[in-house]
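Risk register update: the risk of archive-format incompatibility is retired. Evidence:
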Amino acid sequence: MATIGNAAPGAAQKDGAVDRLKNTDVVKSKSVHLLEGLLGNDDRVLAPKLKAKAPNKLHKVITHQVTKRGWLSSIRLRHAMIIGSLLAFVAFPAVLASVYMVFVASDQYHSSASFSVRSIEAASAPDILGMFSQASTGNTVSDSYILMDFVRSERMLTEVEKKFDLEKIYAARGLDYFYGMAPGLPVENKLEYWRSMIDINFDHASGIMQLQVKAFDPQQSQEIAKFVIQQGEALINDLSASARDGVLKAAQDEMHLAENRLAKARVAVRQYRDASQEVDPVEGAKLAAQLIGGLEAQLVQLNADLATAKSQMSDDTPRMRVLKARIASVEEQLASERQRLGSGSADGQSTEANGDVAGRIQKYEILETEREFAERAYTASLSSLEKARIDANNKQRYLAVFIEPTLSQLAQYPARFLNSFLVALGLLFAWAVFVMGYYNIRDRT
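Archived output:
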């Protein structure tokens, strides 16, 4: 009878393996289970439980081979939903958009033009390139932005509709209702569609503006572009004329005010001269002063003669009486002249009622000062009017078109392959964000 103990080493190894597997399942980490769940592998390789044998008996470990399932049977419901959502929300819409862009979307032709808002003083550049490369100054830049807003405004849409039948020009071609304009739209939707069919850009450094008009017919796009430029040129001319008329009107108003003021001042001076019967009271005052000076000299001479006569004859002599009478007459005349000059009034005030020269001079100086100021103001207003006229003529703005609207021969729009790619990329991105969000929520819960 063979002894089992001779195979002790090998049996010990087998018994150790049996002991490890006995009454014990294979324990796997949580990460391994999560990975198997993502990969769709739900098979659990478990070691069968072994019944206890009698001691010193050789136990036979039976290993069961697990049969692998096919890839279709390993797909879970959520995986099928993800694949289905990828097909439904990404693949199918992308294919549909590509088919629409390639076979349904109508060809669009564009007409482009380049122009610049310039002024007369800025146009005197040393070379021809300076007209367009020279940086625009303040007013032309503001006019350029005004022109941009005007092209995209409802007013421009109204003017274009008066000239062209936009509903007929931009009507849907065939089944292309996405790029066509539906009939009977409200003005807000028409304005939005108009802005989608035109594109205007402004380069602040060079002052050049670029206009692009799209239409389903190349000839129509060129005609619309020409009409838009004509309306923009009319706007710039109106702005220039308005600015010029405003400056000139203000200068003319100032000139008229100064002219009326000067006329009133001249009338006042003339009325004063008629009332005083003298051209210049200042000259009259000079004559009065000379007359007073002469009377004073004469009075001094008579007093000297009287003093001399007193030393030689008595007071009752005829000569003494004559000298005294002349002295009295000169003194009376001197007092009258001084009173008329204004130096002898009792209250110390010179008024016209007294007929004094000082009062007349005072009033005349006031009137003359007003007249001189009115003349200077009138002269200054005339100079300002002439300068404003010159500046207004030199600062007139105009629209310099150096690239006329072009006529396309090939359709540049819509960008079929680019739009198809962007639609597919956007759908794929949105779907990926949704799936990642779903798995993030699932892992956290």
